[in-house]
Inverse folding.
């Protein structure tokens, strides 16, 4: 029962989504199941937060090495939850603009999120060094394409290009846009997307038919 | 535009936390770990609150209050998911998980087929002659040959020898151009984010100066 019922649920839910797509009078069922899906996903956020509380609470209780950081994590989580659930502006929601929750989003979450992603600019530079060694014809093609896209899609690159003799008659921006991005890149992306989509459909079919069961976890 | 003390305080907090994150470039250190833990806590709280107010409140609570009891099923399934917190009853959490996986799998089969596979194939069936200008014709040839040769590279059911081998080799070149362009765009996007951060630091100074009345 612990494994059979989930397999039946998976099959029925998937079959309903397929059937409602081809049967207009049943489209309300698809909308209903989509709502259920969103509600369960949001409950998963609660599960995640509760899991964080338990895991970090245990470390603090045991005074494990670095427990101070866990305390900071819990404090920031609880402070955000308090602002997001308890501080109501007049006639609005705690998440509206101008509330303490919004202040946390604007001044803590957004700057840290952007800083974390911009850190990758430095690491991608070292990755470039490794990738940009033209050891084979394929690596050289990658190098030349990346170099052209990075340099000649910015005003400085176009300015440099205009200084080149003879070559400056070619509109480099248009060349990259039309042939590299619109031609070869489109073809490559399309092939990758087709391959990935066929793979996704095949895995989905295996899941619905109960051939792929790894999402159910261990056998207990 | 008037700048309040709270705005300036917020900008300084944001700048300090950003610098803590950037300190990782030197090496792992207490400032980075502090910022990292604050980020995790705030992110979890943020997604939980927005999830509640944007999804649970209008789609579940409001509907149950309106007497639409079909949504009680979703509430029960959501509650069952939380049973994963108790190891003895964790298996109960498989039911909502199975429901989500089933929905996602069913959705993928029909919508991915329609929106990705059929649409991409349709866009690849292009006119190879009689185009208004030669650039359109050449571009269409590049797309058709590029897609077919790249797919030949991904086709592992036959050995890459002879015609398939040659096509796969051309496919690798097309894919390398694709990866080069993607890499270039990724680098530009990350550098653009970094530029945004530097401009943020500049904003901190200008807003502080404006608040102090010295600019």
């Amino acid at each position: 029962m612990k494994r059979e019922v989930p397999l039946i649920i998976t099959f029925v839910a998937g079959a309903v989504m397929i059937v409602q797509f081809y049967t207009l009078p049943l489209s309300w069922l698809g909308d209903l199941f989509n709502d259920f899906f969103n509600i369960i996903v949001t409950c998963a956020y609660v599960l995640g937060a509760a899991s964080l509380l338990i895991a970090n609470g245990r470390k603090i209780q045991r005074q494990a090495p670095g427990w101070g950081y866990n305390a900071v994590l819990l404090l920031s989580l609880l402070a955000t939850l308090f602002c997001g659930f308890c501080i109501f502006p007049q006639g609005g929601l705690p998440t509206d603009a101008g509330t303490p929750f919004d202040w946390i989003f604007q001044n803590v979450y957004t700057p840290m999120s952007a800083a974390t992603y911009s850190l990758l600019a430095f690491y991608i530079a070292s990755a470039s060094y490794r990738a940009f060694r033209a050891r084979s014809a394929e690596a050289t093609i990658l190098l030349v394409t990346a170099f052209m896209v990075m340099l000649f899609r910015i005003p400085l690159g176009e300015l440099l290009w205009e200084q080149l003799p003879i070559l400056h008659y070619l509109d480099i921006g248009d060349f990259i846009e039309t042939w590299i991005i619109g031609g070869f890149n489109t073809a490559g992306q399309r092939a990758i997307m087709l391959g990935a989509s066929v793979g996704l459909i095949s895995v989905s079919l295996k899941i619905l038919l109960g051939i792929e069961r790894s999402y159910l976890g261990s056998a207990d | 535009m008037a700048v309040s003390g709270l705005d300036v305080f917020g900008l300084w907090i944001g700048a300090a936390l950003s610098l803590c994150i950037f300190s990782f470039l030197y090496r792992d250190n207490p400032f980075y770990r502090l910022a990292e833990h604050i980020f995790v806590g705030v992110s979890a709280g943020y997604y939980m609150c927005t999830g509640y107010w944007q999804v649970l409140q209008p789609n579940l609570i409001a509907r149950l209050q309106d007497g639409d009891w079909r949504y009680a099923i979703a509430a029960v399934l959501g509650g069952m998911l939380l049973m994963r917190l108790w190891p003895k009853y964790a298996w109960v959490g498989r039911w909502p998980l199975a429901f989500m996986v089933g929905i996602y799998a069913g959705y993928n089969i029909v919508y991915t087929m329609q929106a990705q596979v059929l649409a991409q194939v349709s866009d690849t069936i292009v006119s190879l002659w009689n185009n208004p200008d030669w650039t359109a014709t050449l571009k269409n040839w590049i797309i058709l040959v590029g897609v077919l040769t790249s797919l030949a590279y991904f086709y592992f059911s036959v050995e890459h020898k002879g015609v398939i081998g040659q096509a796969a080799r051309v496919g690798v070149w097309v894919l390398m151009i694709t990866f080069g362009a993607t890499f270039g765009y990724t680098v530009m996007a990350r550098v653009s984010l970094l530029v945004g951060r530097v401009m943020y630091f500049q904003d901190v100074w200008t807003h502080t100066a404006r608040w102090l009345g010295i600019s």
Chain A touches chain B through 129 residues (CB under 8 Å).
